[in-house]
Amino acid sequence: MSIEALGINKRFGDFVALDDVSLTVPSGQLTALLGPSGGGKSTLLRIIGGLEDADSGVVRIGGVEATDLPAQRRNVGFVFQHYAAFKHLSVYRNVAFGLEVRKRPKAEIRERVHELLELVHLDQFADRLPSQLSGGQRQRMALARALAVEPKVLLLDEPFGALDAKVRKELRDWLRRLHDQVHVTTVFVTHDQDEALEVSDEIVVINHGRVEQVGTPDELYDHPANDFVMGFLGPVT
Ligand code: ADP
Ligand code: MG
Which residues are in the ABC transporter domain (predicted)? Predict the structure, then answer.
């Protein structure tokens, strides 16, 4: 399902966090929201997901106006940098949680959870506790949990941000392959240029609450719209 966030404005007191920002993600696409810290990425993601209200603007998910729907009714999956797993529940139960809450039949839950654990390569770890997983494995569990209830869209806020460089690189390749299998419309927030360039179909560069450029990784890299984008994408020294 497509995502449209059109003409979004958001202030915190006098501070303008988002200044007439628009973002359109076609169905099945993986879009990176890229920019430096404080640029408004998380705020925009939270507005799309219904965790925060915009001052003005419209959010549509699958063409249906969602602006006034609470997060629970938008059918979105979230993954954040610091994932709050249920510490006392197994990996299996963590992934099953959303389905159990929805009172799906036991056999259906079992099948779906095993499918998902296979998808994120954690089928060997179903009985472990989250504390017995590595950081990278935990974020994969978070993705499985977010996907369990078949969300219309997936919203990822720096999901690999707390991990070391090597694991981050592994997970970005892995997220791309996962997305090619699942095709769920995804917005992926990151401040890491390489991550955005390698993982996404399209990149929206956002800085100081404004969209600087929208384009494919190649378009941005070959034709940066302005000095900011050029500097931001340029070689990291
Ligand atoms: P990013 O995710 O790109 O780092 P954020 O969307 O988190 O940026 O924040 C954008 C700006 O809005 C930052 O300057 C931040 O301090 C400010 N901000 C975010 N949330 C709040 C809030 N609840 N109250 C006040 N200021 C906020
Ligand atoms: Mg953020």
Answer: 3-233
